[in-house]
Predict the structure.
Amino acid sequence: MNTYVTGGLAALALLASALPAAAETVEFTLINESSQALHYFYTNPSNSDEWGEDLLGEDGTLEPGMQGTVTIGDGSDQCEYDFRFETGEGAVLEVTNVDICTLDSYTLSD
């Protein structure tokens, strides 16, 4: 019986160590229902003051009415993220404390 308890504890320890890693790479759909083209999309864990790289890439643009898959794979184990969107027209929108661990999609609108 002692063997089963030890094995069960080892399994629980493995499971617990895997849970924080779930937030390390997150994918969701970004939907642009606004009237402006999105040219830059930055994220950072809410407990950080520095924006990450542009997730749309050097040539990326998300036109109005379009959608795309976003991958956040910065190695962070945080679920709360801040988003910064910049359009080609110069508009900037910052959204704080988005729970990316439960996010299936995010929609931008006017």
Remarks:
- Helices lie at 2-18.
- The beta strands are 26-33, 38-45, 67-72, 80-87, 92-99, 105-109.
- DSSP finds one helix and six strands in the chain.
- Residues 1-22 have pLDDT under 50 and may be disordered.
